[in-house]
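Side project, low priority. Logging it here so it doesn't get lost.
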Amino acid sequence: MQLTAPATRSARRTGIRDTDGMAVASFVLGLLGLLVLNVFLGPIAIALASVALWRGTARRGRALLGLGLGIADLLVLAAFMATDNTMSWSL
């Protein structure tokens, strides 16, 4: 039994690091999505943040920010589509 306990513990640490990475990635992609490619980066940020929160990330704040920014990306896209009737940024 002791042989499997360290392996399980290290696998858990790796899983936590993975979810922390997803939380940070969702934040970065959501922030970047406000500037470029919001049609792609917004949904990816939302998905990564949702998975990170579901798995119980230690970086819950960043995951929530990523979720909020991903939603903001889609709202910005919807606003531009409503004003220009296109899916592009034209100033």
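Brief comment: DSSP finds three helices and no strands in the chain.
Revisit when time allows.
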